[in-house]
Design goal:
Length: about 160
Amino acid sequence: MKVRYSINGKKKEFEIEAGEVLLDVLRRNGYFEVKGNCYMGTCGACTVLIDGLPYTSCTMLAAKVDGSEITTIKGIGTLQNPHPLQKAFVEKGAVQCGFCTPGTILVAYALLKNNPDPSDDDIKRMLDGNLCRCTGYVQQIEAVKLAAKMLKKGDE
């Protein structure tokens, strides 16, 4: 069965198997920035944005999102032109091993798109489904707050 997505702004078409999850389709087609880990939707490492909302791609059937806009971490910034969230995560030391970072930043991106001035509790709630074994979360919360300030100033 064929599916069509727009991934990071580019139209793509893939052949998939019945019951295949989006994570496997993305990784098989070179989107290695989407990390696989638990295959239960509990760690958040595989988070992508589907039509602007964060979802764990390990639990999303690939066929279910046919025709959707999918954004991976590479869709919001590059090494040469990082998004303020990416800059803030580096500045605040919220990037250590980096395994959880793409999913965590995408969740924070969705939060800031809908709530440009989140409270600490808003940030904690949004990051709740993204497990990190390195940072202890304080740096991630501080990074989201810094990115919110940067975006208000127009540092995009």
